[in-house]
Request: fold
Amino acid sequence: MDLISVIIPVYNTEKYLDACVESVAGQTYDNLEIILVDDGSADNCPSMCDEWARRDSRIRVIHKENGGQGEARNAGIEAARGEYIGFVDSDDIVSPVMYERLLDSLKANKADMIQCAMQKFESYPFSFSVTEDVAPLRILTKEEAVKALIAEGAITSTCPSVLLRAEIAKETPFDTGMINEDVMWVYRALANSGRILLTGEKLYAYYQREGSTMNSEYTEKRFDALKANRMRADAVKSDFPDLYPLAERAYAGSCMYHYQWLCRLSDTAEYRGFRERLHSMFLASDLKAVYSVTDFKYKLWYTAFRLLPAPTCKIRNILKIGL
Reply:
């Protein structure tokens, strides 16, 4: 019976931690190693993690200084002893059948990696409605999977909805010192895999706190997402040249999206500087490649943004396009 290591980075989530760990500990597949990585939490999470380890022999705790989610996940990967590895965020909930169904699918299809669908919830308590129905599986080559990832459609840049073979996870560390570390990690995991599965079954639920991202504060750290998209486009150019124009379009589109986001916020000197920086990043992208895979409507939007970025994004906001 294969051991699954489930890595849960924990940082100041005392309000949600018990519900999260209960959902993992209560899996129908019980041959689990649950690794709680306390990333220097300043609340009651360290003692809560230790209490969970006392209550359940399958739970191990790593206490470390705060270094961010990527570093915490790397610590968990290094410590993991399972044949398969999965990730859960400490304010989220998983279906009680998640790991049984994901592992069964992987083994039946001799695949390396699987991603399930996700759903969001906005308040606790949350519980899954478990049925006997199993969603159809898609079997993808790595090229097909990377193309789906770039489109952010069927495959998403989120590692908690993934289960993969441990040897691949151990060859695929997370970037540290940045947010949005999932973007490059999922890409690298796909590139390091052979056969990839995708299920539409919603087995993972993520907590969506109040407030819209588009109306939230914009800080320097938000550029990490763009940095990750830039890194991914460069990697795709080398690894999957035919997909490079799509990856470059995703990067350029992200620059416009972030500019549009800033147009919804206060017109401060700092934000004006951010907008200028975003426009320069867009102009520095490979627009020839971008236009080669862009339909006529979006060629107009990109051209308008290239020439008149602020009015273009304000119009898109008014029309509720791209929000």
Observations:
- The chain has 13 helices and nine strands.
- Residues 213-318 form one domain.
- Residues 297 and 303 are 10 Å apart (CA to CA).
